[in-house]
Amino acid sequence: MKKRVAALAMAAMMTMSVIGCTPDTQPAGGNAANSGNGGGAATGTEAGGGGAATGTEAGGSEAAAGSYGAIKLGETGTDITTTIKFIHHKTDREQDGTIAGYIAEFNKMYPNITVETEGITDYAEDALLRLQGGNWGDVMFIPAIDKAELANYYEPFGTVDEMDGYINFASTWASDNMTYGIAYMGNAQGILYNKKVFADAGVTSVPKTPDEFIAALQKIKDNTDAIPLYTNFAAGWTMGAWDAYLGAITTGDETWYNQKFVHTAEPFKDNGDGTGAYALYKILYDATAQGLIEDDYTTTDWESCKGRINNGEIGTMVLGSWAIVQMKDAGPNPDDIGYMPFPMTVNGKQYATAGPDYSFAVNKDSDADHKLAAQIFVKWMVEESGWCDFEGGYPISKSAPTSFAFDGVEVVENAAALDGEEDLLAEMNAESDLNFNNGGNTKIQDIITDAFNGTKTFDEIMADWTKEWNDAQEELEIEVLY
Q1: Residues 380-392: pLDDT tens digits?
Q2: Which residue, 61, 156, 216, 227, is the most exposed by fewest CB within 10 angstroms?
């Protein structure tokens, strides 16, 4: 098996997907649309140590570490005087004072808990090195590690069942039925668009199928000066964003991506009804072939595109919900920025998937006061700070208010892999070189190149993918069931 030995290493380093990145401007937590898999963790719940048991008492520093539910903000830990350190990847929010502002609010409730912060530019790599070195502080965002390692580094917040009552995506960073990570925000998968451009083009309702979407892009081209679909080809990592829509969005089946995909003989076949992986990637091919993208896709620019969609020079961009705030903040027209569900309808219904971005975790080797202070800080950030909503994220806390909504669209989470199959998709990605939601940007760029130059038909591209997929299944001896 010529590539299998590299599979897990590649998954760990590349899944910083949705995306591979300018760390201060896009999420580095794994693919939000897929298994709810932040930071490149393996999908599913693996055995690997339990950690501290959950407690039920609250009040003072006697509250049990590892008991998120026992912490009562404003009551628990008010007798603690200590300093904790939080390392993270949000260098933009470190620099613009946002995080300092949250800490100032936190200190109104907990004046004796000092929080020192450090934003790290190359977080994916540096956080792993610091984690392994042991001298990183008290709170961090979990980097790409195996779930079996969680108990080696982190204090649990509670059981998965308990935490599921408080947060979304409680099982993402779980091991032995204990939750070790809580996301600071979630990402939902849809499409950014400029509402004024749509109105000027005569598009009166958001498209719900691939054909309707291509028709809308054509209207934008015919009736405005805006680029209908901005691909962000040159950035690379933005191309991988297309993979984020595989799963329930394109199939209506929450089990497809993490459980059935690896066992499917022809996952890229044309279903004939505008659904599935074939229809997903054909949108990009058709838009390119019909001249509905940039005139020169090789010269796209990530930073400048934010202002361009804000001022109406761009009609649509395919990116996760994490990008909404950035586009709104990039110019004088925030109200023109909209976010619509992906244009695909399965049996009369549209779906959106959501998953976590980077997740807070607490150092298991900190002393008791530091652990409790750290857990109090995490709970306050999740439930009281409003950071998730400020970033336009899909909600994490089940009690905090949120402004995120997709009208009439069910938001779901792709189901985790089956027990014992947590690594199969990572192995298939490496063996096939297709790397879905795992830094597979090149294969998406190739769709644009082939469509623009006419070097391959779309069916030829899908046939190539199918062969690579089938060869990997055979090499890895994976049973084909569908």
Answers
A1: 999 999 999 898 8
A2: 61
